[in-house]
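Recall from the previous lesson that a structure prediction takes nothing but the amino acid sequence as input. Here we apply that procedure to Hexosyltransferase from Acer yangbiense. The sequence below is the only information supplied.
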Amino acid sequence: MKMGLGRPQKGANGVSTRWVSLFCIASFFFGVLVINRFWAIPDPVKGDEEASSVKEQQLRLLHPMVNCEKKASLEDKVISSTAFNVLYLLIILYLLLQEAFVQAGDILSQVSQTHDVIMTLDKTISSLEMQLAAARAAKGDTEEGSPVITKSGTASLKERQKVFFVMGIMTAFSSRKRRDSIRQTWMPKGGELKRLEKEKGIIMRFVIGHSATPGGVLDRAIDAEDEQHKDFLRLNHIEGYHELSSKTQIYFSTAVARWDADFYIKVDDDVHVNLGMVGSTLARHRSKPRVYIGCMKSGPVLAQKGVKYYEPEYWKFGEEGNKYFRHATGQIYAISKDLATYISVNRHILHRYANEDVSLGSWFIGLDVEHIDDRSLCCGSSPDCEWKAQAGNPCAASFDWSCSGICKSVERMDEVHQRCGEGDEAIWHTSF
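The prediction returns the following tokens.
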């Protein structure tokens, strides 16, 4: 790419504006020279001033009108000459300014193009570095045991599919009714689920590990359910409420190893989601390399043992009564590819706190990450999301803060879907 000044612009006759400008300048000085010489020639009527001074005085007294006419004529010539010179100057200035603007426009255009190229290269290099790190991590998984577990318990590594986003719906062995309530409302099933992947690049899976006794009754029940719906992502992880931070970490590592997505989403199985709105929200941040999207909060650090959300490592957060750093609430959030890859590569040394959403937020401290607080991801289930849906601006996700999800979600998910849903066809008519 050439960074120098552009060539002088040429007119229709092939003569550059620079030569035209030089010609005009020369013409201007030539005109000034001619006019000066013209006025320097003595008037023959005057002759010898010393010999005819008396006669001229008499003539001026006798013929005042003639003298006035000469003065007027002289003034007209001066005015014409001045106007001529000013016109030349204006033409010259116009041409010079035109050429300057053209050259300045070329420079600005080249600077803008160079900036775009640099940004593209920076993003490409960052992506390649992350892919290399992910490949190394995947190789390590192959040697240690892949995080992806199939029904037979053997490792399964596949070619990564390029998609828009992966949505992992965190679930448990006891949550069959919750999963069915989601399948019957906002999550496509069967052929529609495959169509969603093919046409929109959206992957949706219920995420679950295995029981303490692999191959037991609980695992066989999930295997049978997966055989029917084919909508599970199985993790090399032992299920348990106090292992949510570990489960979240393994989910992102497993998803990155399997799909090459722009975004990776974690959502609980008692939250209502409008897929079209989620896709539109993410699409606005698609060009950014490291984004962390959710409803940002900073709750108190609970030091009292036995209470819900108790933090055993409360002393790390300073004096009693302090609050956590800013992080996304755990019901639903999304992270970009680079951040998910970062978690995958560094999962063995990332510290896990008791609360999963706090753990995720802590992993990004010290990184160049853009935190995006999007309140459309945390609307109340009623009447907040209903009002917004009626106004033509449906929420991306809805739940009840008091229940950390939709209260009695199995019974109410269909109701919330009817009141707050964007419409079952919205996802197919939304462009990302």
